[in-house]
Every structure is written in structure tokens, then in C-alpha cells.
Design goal:
By secondary structure, this protein is mainly beta. It has an eight-stranded antiparallel barrel. The protein is globular. This is Polyisoprenoid-binding protein YceI. InterPro entries: Lipid/polyisoprenoid-bd_YceI, TTHA0802/YceI-like_sf.
Length: 180
């Protein structure tokens, strides 16, 4: 998309968040966040259809509000942050499906495993802030199976309950700032 009309948008981390949810003991849900991430969106003119998206997050910024769990998630049993410090996503398509609804397809890389994923993206709109900067907001959601990406650690209680569910729900709210 390297055309004269391409527009670059960069994530505004102060107005964005990356959240995940996973079942614990199959009876409740644990939520967590990644506090450090970056990304950009390249559009053709100001149309988001077929935008190119590159996104990455820092594993060491994981926060589940419980430091021992966070350290376990960073360990080799899960993300192995020392060896694989980033999770990355590169889009293959962004297709408008209905009004402000989009289908976002791309390649997600966790550890050394890259798999295609399909996510939902809802365009929240665009606006100009107090400083004259144009911003655009999206809410991205979806679900992945952690085992598909090599996150295979399993714990089972004495009673036979699974400690961590396989499906991970993703909820990403991002605000992009249009670059001059």
C-alpha cells in the first residue's frame, strides 16, 4: 500500500488497553492486561477498509493483579518471556461487514508459533482532540485457543478440575492518532 495517498496512524497508548480473560477452575474468569504495546495502521486515504495493521506487545508487561501468577505466565511454562519477549500481529485483511463492523484477519505470533486468526473490530468513530490531532477508535474482540500457540501448561486439581481454560478471550480497545 505504498502509495502517495497512504495515511499512517499510530496507537495512542494513553487511550488504549489490551485485556484478556481465561477460565480458572472452569467456574470463574481471571482477567489480565498487557501494559506495554505498540502498533500502527496504514490506510488508503481515510478509509479503513483493507488497512494494514502491525501490532506487538511486551510479555513482561503482563498484569493479572497477582504477581506470582504474572511471574508464572512469564516463565518457560507459559510465554517464556526471556526467549520470546513479544507477541505480534500482522493483518492480512480488514473488511467492512456492516456499518461500523469489520472482520480483521491476520497472523498472530506467540512464542515461535504463527497462526491465522480472525477477530471482530468495531469502529468507534473518529474525532479531533483539543490539540487538533485526528484520532480513530476501535474495539477488537475475539477468542483464541492458547494450546494452538504452544501455551500447553496444564494443571489439574486433586478433584480433577482443570486449573486454566484453553480458550482466551481478547478485548482490545485502541485509539489511533493520525500522523501528519
Amino acid at each position: 500500500m505504498a502509495t502517495e495517498t497512504a495515511t499512517k496512524w499510530v496507537i495512542d497508548p494513553m487511550h488504549s488497553e489490551v485485556q484478556f480473560k481465561v477460565k480458572h477452575l472452569v467456574i470463574s474468569t481471571v482477567s489480565g492486561f498487557f501494559k506495554s504495546f505498540e502498533g500502527e495502521l496504514i490506510t488508503d486515504n481515510d478509509n479503513f477498509e483493507n488497512a494494514e495493521i502491525d501490532f506487538s506487545l511486551d510479555i513482561n508487561s503482563i498484569d493479572t493483579n497477582q504477581s506470582q501468577r504474572d511471574e508464572h505466565l512469564k516463565s518457560a511454562e507459559f510465554f517464556d518471556a526471556e526467549k520470546y519477549p513479544k507477541i505480534s500481529f500482522k493483518s492480512t485483511s480488514l473488511t467492512n461487514t456492516d456499518d461500523d463492523e469489520y472482520e480483521l484477519k491476520g497472523n498472530l505470533t506467540i512464542k515461535d508459533v504463527t497462526k491465522p486468526v480472525t477477530l471482530k473490530a468495531e469502529f468507534g468513530g473518529s474525532a479531533t482532540d483539543f490539540y487538533g490531532n485526528t484520532k480513530a477508535g476501535f474495539e477488537i474482540s475475539g477468542k483464541i485457543n492458547r494450546k494452538d500457540f504452544g501455551l500447553t501448561w496444564d494443571g489439574v486439581t486433586e478433584a480433577g478440575s482443570v486449573v486454566v481454560g484453553e480458550d482466551i478471550k481478547l478485548l482490545i480497545n485502541v485509539q489511533f492518532a493520525k500522523q501528519a
